[in-house]
Amino acid sequence: MAVCVAVIAKENYPLYIRSAPTENELKFHYMVHTSLDVVDEKISAMGKALVDQRELYLGLLYPTEDYKVYGYVTNSKVKFVMVVDSSNTALRDNEIRSMFRKLHNSYTDVMCNPFYNPGDRIQSRAFDSMVTSMMIQVC
Amino acid sequence: MEAAAGGGCGSGPPLLLSEGEQQCYSELFASCAAAGAAVGGPGSGPPEAARAVPSAATAAAGPVADLFRASQLPAETLHQITELCGAKRVGYFGPTQFYIALKLIAAAQSGLPVRIESIKCEVPLPRFLMSKTDAEIRFGNPTELHGTKVQIPYLITEKNTFKRMDDEDKQQETQSPTMSPLASPPSSPPHYQRVPLSHAYGKLRSNTEQMHPAPYEARQPLVQPEGPSSGAPGTKPPRHQASLIRSFSVEREPQDNNSNYPDEPWRITEEQREYYVNQFRSLQPDPSSFISGSVAKNFFTKSKLSIPELSYIWELSDADCDGALTLPEFCAAFHLIVARKNGYPLPEGLPPTLQTEYLQAAFPKPKRECALFDSYSESMPANQQPRDLNRMEKLSVKDMADFPVPTQDVTSDDKQGLKSTADEALPRDVSEDPATSKDSNSLKARPRSRSYSSTSIEEAMKRGEDPPTPPPRPQKTHSRASSLDLNKVFQPSVPATKSGLLPPPPALPPRPCPSQISHLRVNSKRSAQRRPPTQLPNYGDFRLQKQSEQAPEAEIHPQLNRAPSQAAESSPAKKDIPYSQPPSKPIRRKFRPENPATENQDTSTAVGGPASAATVKPHAAVQKQSSKQKKAIQTAIRKNKEANAVLARLNSELQQQLKEVHQERIALENQLEQLRPVTVL
């Protein structure tokens, strides 16, 4: 479903970014980078309310002609950004949410590993396989 | 080298076997023969075969058939081969028939047509895929082993290899403690059998540099010492035969009937299990609870594997991804680490034998007696952990050095074994026996020494502790902002010092103005002499006078004023005395003759004070007042001194608390630094 999945740390550097290999990866990297601005905007817009009340799923960040970019942020300000191909029959919002939930669960599993230092790049094979499963569903 | 095939095979060209082929074939023949409960008969066993094994005349059809099936050739080809080799003709597989058959199999496997002329050709050794022998092998690559297909790269170059196919993946425990006496194969036949195999693997290893045969080789010498040490020889041959039969069958077998599968690298043996459980206990006394992530991290980091590998091992073994290891998870992780340290590549997924349910089922009880393990277990029972720790302390310098070193010894032995030639193989095996038994002893000893010295265990435990509880709330005794606290501080102390001195006055109105304090001050002063009510007329005088002196006094004793003035609100009068400024004022006033330095006013004013007081009061009372004042001054002095003492004590307490708070703050800052995520930028 997704053509690009990225996990961005709180300080806005990537912990994990992976694109479908067929595409020009640089383009996706750029899209993710620009989407961070939108994410920050959404966070700050809701920021007046307590963090607890802020929903984790941010929804569609912005659409381009070919792609749609969805965002999700955790309570520790770790952001998940997903780029989805627009040509797919429109993915339901719930599906996107479930994909983000899976990402979040896998991310917490990575965090549970005591050998993982927060802030390192994510090299977990389980995480990789989960992202692969998300990315090749569409293909 | 046999120049001609003896026996009844008159047809076809003579069978020329190279030395290697000779060995392999004879070994195969011997195994088939032994497995088949060889019938007696003259066996013109090859000279090499006569090394250690009784050469059997015929190979039983059953194992032979299994062996042929293991060669992965189509049935038709096998039939052809059988026919050609003459077994059908003579009705049995004699040595010559067997050798011819093997040669034909080799030819067929290399693609040559199955014809009697093929036996003349130089063909590589036939390849057989075995399921199990107890002389067996560890092999390396799990992915290869899954398949029934033979590992071609190995074999094309050289020797006959036995590949064992497991139910599980694979790699086996290299450590010698893994062998239990029950699993040890009979000494001589397997010994013999291993000799050519070791030779085979030796060449193979040197050429292909694959790790996989290495463990096999290592296994062999490791297994050998177990042989002599194992049980009655009488039990061995049947077991050997049984195991050989098993070995030639291609089907998978249930593993459960034999718990001692030395071949399987991912199966935890009893000894290992005991060791892991003991290690678990050293980290976490309760076998049924968890080891936290940080404790386990410290522990496994000592294995000196790289962090990504450790991370991957954790991923594999922490099945429920909760950041903590239960006992089965811990054993699995430890086992994977051990395997990795011995050179096995990590599996893609957790092998079935290492999964939690399996481990829990297979080893329901944490401790099981094992013959070989007794001596070992005696050294490592849980209740002797302190002794272990002591021993470990002695070895603490090298405790982790021991960890990689013995394994390297084992692997180096492996490699040495592999590179040996056939001739050396036997002596080397013999020489490796003491070496490996020494290694096994050292490996057994290693658990003791490797158990991470007490200091590191303590560190592990400390790291595993919860983060220090937040600093206790400052006691309510010292906050400067709270006057009541000071009261509480002084309440116990002051009564002790001033117990007999003055009865506490009734509750004071809040924030008494200095006049009131002075009122109380005077009151307390006077109360020693007279009850307060009689002082009323003086209060007014003093109050008036004191008020005028408030301002100069204020600057002089600002500190005293701040705290004491608040404290004086509700404190008994005697507290007022120590730290209320207004009380000091009367003191001052009265002490002006005694404390000129602290007063701006000179004695003239001091005199004037009393004088002014005197002027207010009736003159008749001046004399009385002065004497009273003297007494009051004396009491005031006393009280001031006590107040000083109390204040000094308070000061020291505050200083102490300040130090503690500073320390806590520093500790918290350190913690924050540690917990703060590392920024890549």
UniProtKB/TrEMBL annotation, chain A:
This protein's record includes keyword Nucleus: no
Coiled-coil residue windows: none
Location(s), subcellular: Cytoplasm, Perinuclear region; Endoplasmic reticulum; Golgi apparatus
GO biological process: endoplasmic reticulum to Golgi vesicle-mediated transport
SUPFAM superfamilies: SNARE-like (SSF64356)
Pfam families, sorted: Sedlin_N
Keywords: Cytoplasm, Endoplasmic reticulum, ER-Golgi transport, Golgi apparatus, Transport
Gene Ontology cellular-component annotations: endoplasmic reticulum; Golgi apparatus; perinuclear region of cytoplasm
Superkingdom field: Eukaryota
Predominant localisation class: cytoplasm
InterPro entries to which the protein is assigned, alphabetical: Longin-like_dom_sf (IPR011012), Sedlin (IPR006722), TRAPPC2L (IPR044760)
UniProt entry tagged with the keyword Transport: yes
Family: Belongs to the TRAPP small subunits family. Sedlin subfamily.
Protein name per UniProt: Trafficking protein particle complex subunit 2-like protein
Organism of provenance: Lynx canadensis (Canada lynx)
Gene: TRAPPC2L
TrEMBL record, chain B:
Biological-process GO terms, alphabetical: endocytosis; endosomal transport
Top-level taxon of origin: Eukaryota
Location of region: Disordered: 160-195, 220-240, 401-629
Domain EF-hand residue range list: 305-340
Biased composition (Polar residues): 597-606
Ranges of compositional bias, category Low complexity: 620-629
Biased composition (Pro residues): 502-513
UniProt-listed SMART domains: EH
Listed PROSITE patterns: EF_HAND_1, EF_HAND_2, EH
Record keywords: Calcium, Coiled coil, Metal-binding
Pfam families: EH
An MF annotation (GO) of this entry: calcium ion binding
Gene Ontology CC terms: cytoplasm; plasma membrane
Coiled coil: 633-674
SUPFAM superfamilies from the UniProt entry: EF-hand
CDD domains hit by this protein: EH
Identification of the protein by name: RalBP1-associated Eps domain-containing protein 2 isoform X1
